[in-house]
Design brief:
With 986 residues, this protein is an alpha/beta fold. Helix 23 links the parallel strand 24 and strand 25. Helix 26 packs across helix 30. 38% of the residues are buried.
Length: 986
């Protein structure tokens, strides 16, 4: 017998999963499960609580509530459901569920006492009754019947609405039903914790009263609930009785907002991160940990949930003082405003150094908000509480300017957690900045992590596309340039001229050249009109200097008008007229930023050293990047464009610096953190061709013309299941691919644009017919609304670069791949990462690096195949490891071995024997250690260091070993040896 997939099947599956994690379920047989409890506890369909069941439980859980007085208590509790506003009632009832309800009881002597009655036993969850039933019907002004409802001691805490995609409904429809239920019968949701919307494939949950956009997935689980079926895993991990009561008791905030309070429950990564923090504090084995959550995931609320739990759970820590530390006044203001609007009671702000020191000395158990800068003059050794927990926001910046040392001195006995979306791993030496080493115990990279890929999959952030626009064709009058340079610097020697060029011909200088700025502004202006403005998104131009920012601002205003363009940077007294014209004070900048976040002007912001961190404006889609950013700074910039907004499919960065041409160097993170796919335009184009054929096949047999009959037949075909759902899904993917590929001349020459235009018109008619929308084209993205017929021009800016996308959904896992091409790419990247910082540490490293480059170039030029590239790169990798091993075998440290290698392999004709090379290398390093002062920052680049190294080389080579020809005949030898000494640190 065949059973058709339906909502009933989803319902029964969900009940069976709940039954497996400890719920007493009714309805598994397909009947109306709520009817069983209705009969057992004599509930009328006007009631939302099983009052008789609750009465039994209240008597069982509370010594002073008896059969004689429980009816009076229940009558009092019923009045708590009579509220005018749902959220006001929900907030008040949540307090009853977590703190208990006051109740007057009569003593035997006639006096009365006030007690608190527990509705739920949070200390001993097994003492509660957990029921999951289907089809719980409630009739007030109207009747609603949610699919599944979860009751604890007869109180409805979770309401679920389920759909079947086989019946062309999904979780979006379920959310709409839940929002309608809250409006129709708010009484059911007064005790509620959260709602669940699910379909055959996906699940979302949202706090009671949450708008549609705040229904989110639960995509993680502890090992005991892990499951390949994502919906089953979510139900077990989120709705098991222990987690449900934990969320109810410890993870609910109410936030004051315009128009009324909002209830906030945690995202899954926040919940699990907080519990990891609590476990670490309770175990006391380690005194630190790193929370690595990508930008946009809600790190501020993670810290606040952690603070609330630390202060309210004596089983974790008895009397803690909790610090939240930020590193800018702006972030401090944002967090202060957040705290002021939340239902978190024990907190204060240390506004200056003296109050901060006083709070540290007193050590009272509360949350203290402050900035890291205020620790600068706090006296060491005054910590008055031995249970201090510190949470540092933007931990990748925590180590800068020795700020961490000041905090360590003020709070030497604390547990310290760092929070960051962009950790720094700039080196392995002690003086290098390294977020992992600073905050993670040995052997642990992070305490909890939420990746970029997870953020995109969960819909918290958007993918970001990158377009390279950094190579420009220049017509240079070389003869005139040389003549003018010679005239201007005729008094200099050749070496001095070269030094002047090196010092002055920087990326910043190039960014301030007028012809280049003119050409870039022309590109920005056209790109903004074609790609950003049609859907009313906004753009930001990021520059390397205030001068270049002013130049961009002037020219963009000439093209777009003063109202559309604002320029933001700091002002100084001696600024030139060019820079001074865009001076703003703090109040003016705040006003400009506020306006930018709205739909009004300005449309474009030009910035230098502003708004690259902590700036959330979902309306910002495109960043024009003319500044060379790397690592955490680059990730911070990316995060400015990836904030979701209605109708926004992706963020975009137009790169005028070539940052993304060498993406592996720009982002020194592990493979998943990068999650960038450099996809050649031809690959994207092939995907587009396949996709448009797939969508066109839906309309096989229907003429592709503009007749009424063709349009009618096409809309009819996709208006019923299953073609309806297929067309909706496949056309959405087609839109994304078309947006990624265009502009491309092949779209016109190969007829792709024509087919896409026809499908777009059918989609418009389909949306109008099936959804009743007055203007469905408003939902079409910029390329859908206006097909670009001919946007490919051979201009001054090179365009034939790959397209880079953050969070590419088709990325294969590198680990365990059979694909030799991917293996070769990963080995090349790993070897380069190992070699790049070591190239000046040993001549072999430089030669090996050159070999990697040669192999990769021959591989990309198809001179060797994938398997050959893999083997060649593996051999290089093995030789890299041999360098360290050989040094150990010969009993030399790194600097000695580097000099020895140079003498024996780079200049073997200059020495008598390997033994002489070894003795010379040892003497150079010995003299270096004895004569060069290395006990202060900056010694490596200090002129005294360089001079002393040159003197000791003269002593060792000329005076002691008669090897002056090494210096006389080889200009590069001294530089190389100096690098070996400095890079290997003696």
């Amino acid at each position: 017998m065949v059973s058709l997939p339906s909502e009933g099947g989803v319902e029964r599956s969900l009940l069976s999963w709940l039954d497996g994690v400890g719920w007493e379920t009714h309805g598994l047989d397909g009947g109306r499960g709520a009817g069983v409890l209705d009969e057992a506890y004599e509930r009328s369909n006007r009631e939302v609580v099983y009052w008789n069941l609750l009465a039994e439980q209240v008597v069982a859980l509370n010594d002073n509530v008896t059969e004689k007085n429980v009816d009076k208590f229940v009558s009092s509790l019923k009045r708590d459901l009579d509220v005018e506003h749902l959220m006001d009632g929900n907030r008040a009832f949540h307090r009853l569920l977590t703190k208990g309800k006051s109740f007057n009881i009569q003593r035997d002597d006639g006096a009365s006492d006030t007690i608190y009655v527990d509705l739920i036993d949070h200390e001993n969850p097994e003492n509660n009754r957990f029921h999951a039933v289907n089809q719980f019907s409630v009739s007030r002004e109207t009747t609603i019947r949610p699919d599944v409802t979860l009751f604890v001691n007869g109180i409805p805490l979770v309401t679920m609405e389920l759909k079947s995609v086989a019946q062309d409904n999904d979780w979006h429809d379920a959310v709409s039903d839940l929002v309608a239920y809250e409006e129709d019968v708010p009484r059911l949701f007064v005790p509620g914790l959260f709602n669940v919307a699910a379909d055959t494939m996906e699940l979302r949950y949202g706090a009671v009263g949450a708008p549609r956009e705040f229904y989110e997935p639960w995509n993680d689980a502890p090992e005991e609930f892990a499951d390949d079926n994502a919906t089953r895993q979510a139900i077990k991990a989120l709705c098991n009785p222990a987690t449900l009561l934990d969320l109810l008791k410890h993870f609910v905030f109410y936030e004051q907002q315009a128009g009324g309070d909002a209830k906030i429950v945690p995202r899954y990564m926040q919940y699990y991160a907080v519990n990891s923090i609590l476990d670490r504090v309770a175990e006391s084995e380690y005194d630190r940990g790193l929370i690595w959550h990508t930008q946009g995931s809600g790190k501020s609320f993670t810290m606040l949930y952690a603070a609330e739990n630390l202060l309210s759970r004596p089983e974790v820590t008895r009397n803690p003082q909790v610090f939240i530390i930020v590193d800018t006044d702006k972030l401090n203001s944002q967090m202060r405003d957040q705290l002021a609007n939340l239902s978190l009671e024990q907190w204060t702000e240390a506004e200056s150094i003296d109050p901060l020191q006083r709070l540290i000395e007193e050590g009272s158990s509360q949350l203290v908000l402050t900035t890291i800068q205020k620790f600068e003059d706090v006296d060491p050794g005054v910590q008055g509480n031995d249970e201090v927990i510190v949470m540092s926001d933007e931990a990748h910046r925590f180590m800068e300017a020795d700020l961490g040392s000041r905090l360590d001195a003020a709070l030497p006995d604390c547990t310290h957690f760092g929070f960051t979306g962009t950790p720094v791993r700039e080196g392995e030496r002690h003086e290098d900045r390294n977020t992992f080493r600073e905050f993670s115990p040995e052997g642990e990279d992070y305490l909890h992590r939420y990746t970029v890929k997870q953020g995109i999959d969960d819909g918290l952030i958007l993918p970001v596309y990158f377009t390279l626009r950094h190579e420009m064709e220049w017509e240079i009058d070389e003869a005139g340039l040389d003549e003018e340079f010679e005239q201007e610097f005729r008094g200099m020697t050749t070496d001095q001229k070269r030094e002047a060029i090196r010092e002055n011909a920087t990326a910043r200088t190039l960014a301030e050249l007028e012809p280049r700025v003119d050409r870039a502004v022309e590109e920005i202006d056209a790109h903004y009109d074609d790609h950003v403005a049609p859907n009313d998104w906004k753009g930001m131009v990021v520059t390397p200097s205030r001068r270049s920012a002013a130049m961009y601002g002037e020219r963009l205003r000439q093209r777009r008008g003063d109202e559309e363009v604002e320029v933001l940077y700091t002002a100084t007294k001696d600024d030139s007229d060019l820079i001074e014209q865009f001076h703003t004070d703090s109040e003016e900048r705040d006003s400009i930023v506020k306006a930018f976040k709205q739909e009004s002007n300005p449309k474009l912001l030009v910035v230098h050293n502003m708004l690259l961190t902590g700036f959330d404006a979902p309306i910002l889609k495109t960043m024009y990047l003319d500044r060379n950013l790397k690592n955490h700074n680059l990730m911070q910039a990316i995060a400015r464009t990836n904030r979701p907004a209605a109708g926004k499919e992706n963020g975009e960065i137009v790169d005028f610096q070539g940052v993304f041409e060498n993406i592996d160097e720009a982002l020194d993170y592990d493979a998943e953190t990068k999650a960038y796919a450099a996809r050649d335009k031809d690959e994207l184009y092939d995907d587009l061709v396949e996709q448009i054929e797939r969508v066109m096949d839906i309309f096989d047999g229907i003429p592709k013309d503009d007749t009424q009959e063709a349009t009618y037949d096409a809309v009819e075909r996709v208006s019923t299941h299953p073609e309806r759902r297929e067309f909706k899904q496949q056309f959405r993917r087609l839109q994304n691919l078309y947006e990624a590929v265009a502009p491309d001349g092949r779209l016109v020459s190969e007829g792709i644009e024509r087919d896409y235009k026809w499908l777009s018109r059918i989609h418009v008619a389909f949306k109008r017919t099936t959804s009743g929308e007055d203007d469905p084209e408003e939902e079409m993205r910029e390329k859908t609304r206006e097909i670009i017929n001919d946007h490919v021009e051979i201009g001054e800016i090179k365009r034939d670069f790959p397209t880079y996308k953050l969070g590419e959904e088709f990325l294969e896992e590198v680990e365990g791949l059979d694909n030799p091409g991917v293996k070769a790419s990963q080995i090349a990247h790993a070897t380069r990462e190992h070699l790049h910082p070591r190239e000046n540490q040993n001549p072999r490293y430089k030669r090996l690096s050159e070999r990697v480059t040669d192999i990769v170039e021959r591989w990309h030029g198809e001179q060797i195949g994938d398997p050959e590239a893999v083997e060649a790169l593996k051999s290089v990798e093995e030789e890299v490891l041999k360098v360290e091993k050989e040094a150990d075998e010969q009993g030399m440290d790194a600097a000695e071995f580097a000099i020895y290698t140079h003498l024996t392999e780079e200049t073997p004709e200059t020495i008598e024997s390997d033994e002489q090379a070894e003795a010379v290398a040892e003497e150079i390093v010995t003299q270096f250690r004895e004569r060069v002062d290395r006990d202060y920052p900056g010694w490596r680049t200090n002129r005294q260091t360089i001079a002393e190294i040159e003197r000791l080389l003269l002593d060792v080579l000329v005076v002691e070993n008669d090897l002056g020809h090494l210096i006389r005949d080889n200009d590069e030898f001294v530089d190389a040896v100096r690098d070996y000494l400095v890079q290997n640190d003696g």
